[in-house]
Amino acid sequence: MTEAFISDFHTIWETEGIAAIQRVARNDPSTFIRVAASLMPKDINVNATLDVDATTFVANFRQAVELLGNELPPSSRRRMKAIDVDDTDHH
Fold first, then answer.
1. Which residues contact 25 (CB under 8 A, 6 or more apart)?
2. Quick one: how many helices (H) and strands (E) in the chain?
3. pLDDT tens-digit map of 32-61
4. Looking at residues 12-22, what average pLDDT do you find?
5. Residue 55 half-sphere exposure, CB side, CA atoms within 13 Å?
6. Taking the complete model, does pTM exceed 0.90, yes or no?
7. Radius of gyration over alpha carbons of the chain, in Å?
8. Within 13 Å, how many C-alpha atoms sit on residue 24's CB side?
9. Measured between alpha carbons, how far is 25 from 33 in angstroms, rounded to an integer?
10. Which one of 33, 86, 89, 90 is most buried, by most CB atoms within 10 A?
């Protein structure tokens, strides 16, 4: 029986395939999403490496702000002062 079902399903798929998917997506979107989700792998491994240079990021950010026609807040226009802290001196 399984082979007959798969054979029949394949026959219908060859003639109705994309049209059937489009019909379900249009007429019963919840079923379409449920079937699509069931076909997705259960375990997806996403690894991302983020290597960002701070100077490049700031330059790109400022360029984006300029292109958008926005102004940077006054505090970001002036140079920040570095404060050296000596961690070896405990009071």
1. 32
2. 4, 0
3. 888 888 888 777 777 777 777 888 888 888
4. 90
5. 0
6. no
7. 29
8. 12
9. 8
10. 33
Q: Evaluate if residue 72 carries a pLDDT over 60.
A: no
| Amino acid present at 86 | D
Q: What token pair was written down for 84? A: 């050296």
In a domain, 29, yes or no: yes
Residue 25 lies in a domain: yes
**Overall domain count for the chain:** 1
Helix (H, G, I), strand (E, B) or coil at 62: helix
Integer Cα distance of 46 and 6 in angstroms = 34
Q: Which domain holds residue 17?
A: 2-39
Instruction: For residue 30, give both structure tokens.
Output: 């919840």
**CA nearest 76: which of 56, 91, 61?**
61
* Structural domain contains residue 10: yes
